[in-house]
Specification:
The protein has 14 helices and 18 strands. The chain is an alpha+beta fold. The structure holds magnesium ion.
């Protein structure tokens, strides 16, 4: 493992990402406190705009606390389609710099500039790469990003944190310890509240204090792996590589039958059962996924797989089952099926399981993942604060709130400037939900025989 002498690790983090996307697309909310998260009774704040942070609202705070601290904020459910679309543009801009990009979340990634086309990677040059990147992202997405660069992941991430919001910081090679020493130990990876409390008992509050503790003492206090790793991090000794390898995680289950099954009702029941098993495994592992895949082996052992991707990750058995059922409807099963499988991939760990559960009813679920037809099929018309809508007369807008048979919509878009608010009947036939994603439903099939 190579020790870097140039600030060739870049860390990019979009500023108040979800809230910033909402302010971009909803002109009346620019400069105002915006809080995105679960709006139900047990909802949690996902992102607060900087205006809301001034009132002490933070990520992971309960939504009820956020409402107490900043009652005049706009409270919105998330729009993952819009967030994914912005994220795709940002990640593509990073891949233009280097093929070695390690995404940490939708709005955060490391880039190994040394793995890109050979170029001067002096601090001055890296600074200009960072500046160009930030203005490129602002131009292409309308969002601001903070960028840090340093000789290691640890310092690059700390630098982007210090540059926030809308800034750039390059740690000069050789000055890493000067940057680290005054920081609280909590700034180091792996130091959570429990570790911090144990360190406090040793009189350690800053990284500089930590660097005075011997490795043997740290191992005694925190165990072998953790102790050694902190000992090294306190000395800015971090050679972890930027790694683009993403585990392509998926969870799937399948059943093979000892006879060809042709009964459509039985097939649907089997798909439903498989979906429930997949969903149970997802929730047991705390994961949700965006792509549902149906695998079918026909009587002649031809194997087909079809998949659908939707904007928001789900672990909801009814959503998985509904999508898998639709995929099955596309397959000619008349001659009989030998094997059925259902899988979910594109897995993510959403801290926020209830981000979309904006209504207080126990039936609250992820929004219709596919398109508006699904919503109608299910007889559901739920107007979630923040969601995109379009009205036949008034045009495009977004839901401010609903209740008592009414829905309040502000008719504006990213390009329109602040627009008027109108209150409509909740069942206004001229009002339709829009899902802000370029392609919300893609079905694909592999050639016969592929498995
Ligand atoms: Mg961010």
């Amino acid at each position: 493992v190579r020790v870097r002498t140039e600030p060739s690790v870049l860390h990019l983090d979009l500023d108040a990402f979800y809230a910033a996307v909402e302010q971009r697309d909803k002109p009346s909310l620019r400069g105002r406190p915006v809080i995105v998260g679960g709006l139900g009774p047990r909802g949690v704040v996902s992102t607060a705009s900087y205006e809301a942070r001034r009132y002490g609202v933070r990520s992971a705070m309960s939504m009820s606390e956020a409402r107490r601290r900043c009652p005049h904020a706009a409270f919105l459910a998330g729009r993952f389609g819009a967030y994914h679309a912005a994220s795709d543009v940002v990640m593509a801009a990073l891949r233009d710099l280097s093929p070695l990009v390690e995404p940490l979340s939708l709005d955060e990634a490391f880039v190994d500039l040394a793995a890109g086309p050979p170029t001067d990677l002096s601090s001055a040059r890296v600074r200009s790469i960072g500046t160009a990147l930030r203005s490129n992202i602002r131009e292409r997405t309308g969002l601001t990003a903070s960028v840090g660069a340093a000789t290691s992941k640890l310092l690059a991430k700390i630098a982007s944190e210090q540059a926030k919001p809308d800034g750039l910081a390059v740690v000069e090679p050789g000055s890493e310890l000067d940057v680290l020493r005054p920081l609280p130990v909590r700034s180091l990876w792996g130091v959570g509240p429990a570790t911090a409390a144990r360190l406090t008992r040793l009189g350690v509050s800053t990284v500089g204090d930590l660097a005075r503790i011997t490795e043997i003492e740290l191992v005694g206090l925190l165990g072998d792996a953790h102790g050694r790793s902190l000992y090294r991090l306190a000395r800015a000794d971090d050679t972890r590589p930027v790694s683009a390898e993403r585990e392509s995680k998926s969870i799937s289950v399948e059943d093979t039958f000892d006879r060809d099954i042709t009964d459509p009702a039985l097939l649907s029941a089997l798909v439903e059962r498989l979906s429930a098993r997949v969903a149970a495994r997802l929730s047991a592992t705390g994961l949700s996924g965006r792509t549902v895949t149906l695998k079918v082996r026909l009587y002649d052992f031809t194997t087909l797989s079809r998949s659908a991707t939707f904007p928001a990750p789900t672990d909801d058995p009814t959503v998985v089952s509904r999508v898998a059922g639709r995929l099955l409807a596309d397959v000619d099963t008349a001659a009989g099926i030998r094997l059925l499988g259902v899988g979910v991939s594109g897995l993510v760990e959403w801290v926020q399981r209830d981000l979309f559960s904006a209504v207080d009813s126990p039936a609250a679920e992820q929004p219709a993942p596919v398109d508006d037809h699904t919503t109608r099929d299910r007889g559901l018309r739920r107007w979630v604060p923040g969601m995109d809508v379009v009205h036949v007369q008034h045009g495009p807008g977004w839901v401010w709130g609903s209740g008592r048979g009414r829905v309040t919509v502000r008719f504006e878009t990213a390009d329109s400037g602040p627009g008027p608010v109108r209150t409509l009947a909740e069942d206004d036939p001229d009002l339709t939900a829009r899902i802000a994603s370029a392609s919300t439903f893609s079905a694909s099939s592999q050639p016969p025989g592929a498995d």
